[in-house]
Amino acid sequence: MDRPLLEINDLHVSVAGKEIIKGMDLQVKQGEVHVIFGPNGSGKSTLLNAVMHLPGYTIDRGVIRVKSQNIAEMSTDEIANLGIGISFQHPPKIKGVTLRNFLDAINRSEDLDEAVKALSMDTFLERELNVGFSGGELKRAEVLKLYAQHPDLLLIDEPESGVDFENIAIISKAINKILQKERPMRLRERAAIIITHTGHILNYVQADIGHVFMDGKIVCTGNPQSIMEDIKKAGFSGCSACIKQQKDHA
Ligand code: ADP
Ligand code: MG
């Protein structure tokens, strides 16, 4: 049960010539749900996009392993085929491709129709992918995409941004279903990294490990709920003060 799905060692990533990720380590094992908190512009999306080798994200140093395989020379396609799926913060709009065309091309799930209904996407199947979708619709379509892909590791970038509470509940339920959280007698098989700005998702999806990402690296790891409480009370400047205090005491 505790096979590492993802191992990141000393990762440095630059975007448009600027170093954004400045030496970070992370290990995600099968069954674990990690949440990453961090200020706007700190590089959270960069991290997920770099793991998927999306264009524009240059890995300057470090090693990323998926299921023990070094992915350095792999294409995005090959990485996805290793069992990693990403739900984008800002999903691209694809004219000329309907949601149905898209799902047909990627589907590996036997009960996709159920998920289409549960996510209320039935009336969107003939629409062009993400074109004119509202905030909640975009995120529901992204989670439906993950459902269809059935990846072992889900990278979920801000599922609740631009989404009302009702949609957060619907999206979370689908995420839990993918993670098999709705079957309490069975252990989770899959794992996830969820980036959250508001932390609302923690009310629905049970997370195991929380991280604060600031200044290009993970600066704090611990219980997700207590990290969120601290951020709510003191903001990310509270995190900076806490890190300084720890350094001074070291
Ligand atoms: P977060 O997700 O934590 O809000 P991002 O990873 O989106 O942060 O962005 C980190 C930094 O990288 C920001 O300063 C952002 O402007 C910059 N950045 C991201 N993508 C690009 C890009 N395509 N071109 C130039 N700068 C970028
Ligand atoms: Mg982001």
Walk me through this protein's architecture:
This protein is α/β, with parallel strands linked by helices and 250 residues long. It has one domain (6-249): P-loop containing nucleotide triphosphate hydrolases (Rossmann fold, 3-Layer(aba) Sandwich), CATH 3.40.50. Helix content is 34%, strand content 30%. It is built from seven helices and twelve strands. It has helices at 44-51, 76-81, 99-106, 112-118, 135-149, 165-178, 224-249, and strands at residues 4-15, 18-29, 33-37, 57-66, 69-70, 84-87, 94-98, 128-129, 153-157, 191-195, 209-214, 217-222. The protein has a six-stranded mixed β-sheet with strand order 6-9-10-3-11-12, sandwiched between helices. A four-stranded antiparallel β-sheet has the order 2-1-4-5. The protein has a two-stranded antiparallel ribbon with strand order 7-8. α5 packs parallel to α6. The model has no long low-confidence stretch (mean pLDDT 93). Adenosine-5'-diphosphate binds at residues 15-16, 20, 38, 40-46, 56.
Number of structurally distinct domains: 1
Which kinds of small molecule does this entry bind, naming each only once? adenosine-5'-diphosphate, magnesium ion
Mean of all residue-level pLDDT scores: 93
CATH class: Alpha Beta
In short:
This protein is α/β, with parallel strands linked by helices.
Keyword list:
binds adenosine-5'-diphosphate; 7 helices; four-stranded antiparallel β-sheet; binds magnesium ion; Rossmann fold; six-stranded mixed β-sheet; alpha/beta; globular; 250 residues; 12 strands
